[in-house]
Amino acid sequence: MPSPKTAQAPTPIKGSAVKSLIGATVGFFIGFGAVSLFGPTAHGFIEVMQLTPAQVGFLVAIPMLTGSLLRIPFGAWVDRNGGKLPFLILLLASVIGIAGLYWMLLTLYPDHLTQAHYPWLLFFGALGGCGIATFSVGIGQVSYWYPRNSQGRALAIYAGLGNTSPGLVAIILPLIIAAGGLWMGYLVSLAIVIAGIALYVVIGFNAPYFQLRHQDVPPDQAREEAARHGQELFPAVSMFKTLRDSAMSWRTWPLVILYFTTFGGFLALTAWLPNFWQTFYHATPMAAIALTAGFSLFSSIIRVPGGSWADRFGGELVAAVALLVLLAGALLMTFSGSFWITVAGEILVGAGMGVNNAAVFKLVPLYVPDAVGGTAGWVGGLGALGGFVVPPLLGSIAERMGTIGYARGYVVYVILALISLLFTVLLYTTRKGVAIHTSPVRVAPHRVK
Fold first, then answer.
1. How far apart are CA 257 and CA 264, in angstroms?
2. Calpha distance 390→392 (Å, rounded)
3. Contact 301, 67 (CB under 8 A)
4. Which residues form the Major facilitator superfamily (MFS) profile domain (predicted)?
5. N or C: which end of the chain has fewer CB atoms below 10 A?
């Protein structure tokens, strides 16, 4: 005899796909701002703490370490509860990290901030970076709301608008610091994150299946009811299973490489470019900020049409073209000694990175539809790790080669682009094996298993 809970009609589904997309985008936007925790302020720390180029590279990269690795378990956790809880946990951890930096700067900067405090900067920066990990959570949350044939556009909007955060931070944070001091910049950042959390709580609803499961509706009944609300993707049985299933799919790993190159590379450049422009071309701080913000915003915004192109022409083809554009830009930045040619190279790099990022996450729910959260975790987590790995490499090359090393270091991107092109060709030549997943046919409610 069924229990009272299974006999009762479920509570009406809250929210909608559009509201969930807005909520996830807002949450990711405020969390992703941690990418610029140190980039726009690195020169201030260099002057006060006498940091080496390698130490600067590690400092600007440290938020990406936690922001990358935590994407894996938290992205998989979406397949268990829908995303809202892990989203909030990550944002609260980021609040603690930014609050710690604010306290340090308020009490120590500038006279008492020394090399001895460098580990504490790294610690609070790592906590602040937890907000970056919201990306894989939002990918899963949005994917479960939207049908397959419109996921490319929805995910591109989510990631593209969310990715504008570092560019805006790179513009606004130095202005706040100039007006009120370094500590004021982090205080305002803290207030913005708290306000964003409140907004996400109000509109960031889980997909219908997860709402029904939270009401103790049995899995089969929840799937049928959710399908009637338009949900097409459903999670694996457990968090371990979604990680295992996605890891066992070989197509997950080429996507990791592609995302390491372009999203991890994007994170690295957003943090590194202010220092590059000021050191190599002796640009003014405001010019360096403008160039960095322009790169970040352009690469983020072009991701939106990039998702539509991936829907129309196919993710592999769009990714290959984007990587060729990235390769051309990286060659210009590596070997040019001209300011404006390097600017042109930066524009090409930004375009290639943004479009490829959209193409990659068009492919995630199509290749591994039964473990979207786990796949998003592996791709988003290990891919974003490039933001932690690349800046110390750039700093090390600059330290060994001197000033010219700031330009020659971009050969790292040339190599990564070539490797990613090879993996894209591999995906394209084996695409027939996943033809069943790329069809945008709607799943009928009674066929959902």
1. 10
2. 6
3. no
4. 20-432
5. N
What's the pTM value of the predicted model, to 2 decimals? 0.75
Q: Does an H or E element contain 37, and which?
A: none
**DSSP structure class, residue 264:** I
Q: Does residue 238 come out as left (phi exceeding 0), alpha (psi in the -120 to 50 range) or beta?
A: beta
pLDDT in tens, 411-438: 999 999 999 999 998 878 877 655 444 4
Cis geometry, peptide bond prior to residue 110 (ω within 30 degrees of 0): yes
Distance CA 262, CA 295 (A): 13
Q: What is the pLDDT of residues 26-63, one digit of tens each?
A: 999 999 888 777 767 766 777 788 888 888 888 888 88
> Could you tell me where the DSSP H helices lie in 33-163?
42-49, 53-69, 71-81, 84-108, 118-128, 134-145, 151-162
Which pair of tokens denotes residue 383?
A: 């891919």
CB atoms near residue 118 (< 10 Å): 16
77-136 residue pLDDT tens:
887 888 899 999 999 999 999 898 888 888 888 788 888 889 998 999 899 999 989 988
Domains and CATH numbers, the chain: 15-204+236-431 (1.20.1250.20)
Token pair for residue 72?
A: 């894996």
